[in-house]
Amino acid sequence: MAWNEPGNQGKDPWGNRGGKDQGPPDLDEVFRKFTSRFGGGGNGGGSGNLSKMGVALVLVGAVIVWGLSGLYKVEEAERGVVLQFGQYHDLVGPGLKWKPTFVQTVYPINIQRVNRLNASGVMLTQDENVVTVQMEVQYRIEDPRKYLFSVTNPDQSLSEALDSALRYVVGHTTMDNILTVGREQVRSDTWAELDGIIEPYDMGIRVVDVAFKEARPPEEVKPAFDDAIAAQEDEERYVQEATAYTRQVEPQARGRAERMLREASAYKERVVLEAEGEVARFTSLLPQYEAAPEVTRERLYLETMEQVYSSTSKVMVDNKEGGSMFYLPLDKIIQGQSQNTQMAPAQQQSAPNRSVRTDTTNDRAGRSTTRQGRN
């Protein structure tokens, strides 16, 4: 049976009996009862003092919590940007700090960390080829205030500036340079173009480095470009090998040329000196020849024959009286002596080999003259 049906004598939810008054309770009465119970149920003066003491304790606890909530720490590599009621107020250094909660807000910014952003995409080159390029920029925050308030999103702005600079540089470079020898030039040009783009925005960012990570042709034509790159690498290798060979051969050729020039100069000097010596010798012999022609002629003949026979191992003897010519096989004799010398090395060391040359000539009177010499 419901509480408001006829015949129900129980209590209704609002504290009425008999169901006569069905309205909601008085809120002032409920609050008054709650306050009296909180005060301990004594007389009116005592409950008022206790209520004031409780409120004071609550306020003191709230102040303590509020004060402790304002403590914060700024790391060594960070700088804190302080906002007061949403506006820039101050820039604090590292250490333990305090701020009034709900009045100031602190944003710590790391100024020593090197941040990285990547930019990549399919781009059109100057020679109307398509290439996929990926580049990374490394930057550091120098001015935290400008980094937070100069632009809405500095990281996104930097990424878009890098993409714009990269597309501009790739659009003014041929594909061969991008894929092979021009990568460093593309990197430096992109860095310079990026600095020029972000400078007017004054974002408090300094670009530390720009790295060229990857450049490749589209997958459909990649095998052909791989062959072209391999051919260019072979060309560079051949050029380097030829240069190394040139550097190796050229000094040798210069040395041989210098040696030949010096030998020719020495030969020239030797021939000139020998000619001058012959002239001097002839000049000195001329008075002797004029004084005794026959004797001088005979002496010159003998000296000439001695010079000729000194380089041969055979001696020819012209016997005008007998009418026959014979020779002594000194080469065989010397060979036999050398074999005997090898069999007796001690004798070879004690006595040097001596060979006797016998020259027999006939003077005009038909007399035989024998000369002995030592080789």
TrEMBL record:
Domain Band residue range list: 69-229
GO biological process, one term: proteolysis
Bilayer topology: Single-pass membrane protein
Biased composition (Basic and acidic residues): 356-366
SMART domains from the UniProt entry: PHB
A Pfam short name: Band_7
Compositional bias segments (type: Polar residues): 338-355
Highest taxon of source: Bacteria
Alphabetized UniProt keyword annotations: Hydrolase, Membrane, Protease, Transmembrane, Transmembrane helix
Region (Disordered): 1-26, 338-375
GO molecular-function terms, A-Z: peptidase activity
Subcellular location: Membrane
UniProt cross-references to NCBIfam families, sorted A to Z: hflK
Family: Belongs to the band 7/mec-2 family. HflK subfamily.
Subunit composition and interactions: HflC and HflK may interact to form a multimeric complex.
Biological role: HflC and HflK could encode or regulate a protease.
Protein name from the UniProt record: Protein HflK
Organism: Ferrimonas pelagia
